[in-house]
Amino acid sequence: MTTSAKLRGLGQGNTITLGNCEIYAPEILVTLPIIIRCRTHHEGDTNCQLQRRSRLRRAWDHQLESIIDTIDVDPGTIEVAFAELAASPDPNSRLISARSERCPLRVLTELANDWWWEVRAGVASNARCPHQVQHTLAIDDNPWVRRALAENQNTDSACIDILAKDSDFGVRDAAAEHPRCSKDSLVKLASDGRWEIRRSIAKRQDAPLTALALLASDPEPWVRFFVAANPTTSSHLRQRLEQDSNTKVRSMARHASTPAAKVANALAFGLNQLPARGVSADDPHKL
């Protein structure tokens, strides 16, 4: 049985083991301040004490996220516990709080200004991240924070449009794949300097026809391949791709009107041959 499953079945009188400590289930969250103090290094600790704290941290971190996400206590206790975690000098404690969907919005807002970028990325990836916080994180100095926000399926469309113009390739690529990316942004990304991003647009079934028309003439064969494979591509574009200079693009364009199994096989063949993300379009292993 998983830790989460065990925790869901806990009731009054049951205990949870954290490291060498047994804590009653209803009291776990109010005990967090003690746990946090035990997890924090103190000046003057001997090597033995440091090693013991490190072992305890590993044991606690393994279960703590599951515990705070599943334990059944009143909202007031939860807010106090998350506030304690967020105020901890230990960044891992703050990260646990930032990633939890039970974390109060007030605490998430505070953690969005944390000095450690991983904590801010945890907030950015949180499904309950407030919209005003999303707009702050969309212009964060660290690209990994912005990428986490672009990969969050609950990020609003206005933020995704901002991220679609980002200077970082990974952020733009995540924005290009986001379901809330606007049509205007998709059209602009269809002219992006990175072919991987243009490929992401070509694979979208909701890609605007103007974007697909532009991508049908893309210099990168893999982009044209996915335009040909896209079921929303117009018959006019598909006829043009049937005359493409690349064999696989022509084959995909011709197979698009055949039974679904043949299209799936052709698409699977193409996907298996795709170069890794970040490889240059001039790579000798491309189409």
Automatic annotation (TrEMBL):
SUPFAM superfamilies: ARM repeat. It comes from the Bacteria. This is Leucine rich repeat variant. It comes from Ferrimicrobium acidiphilum DSM 19497.
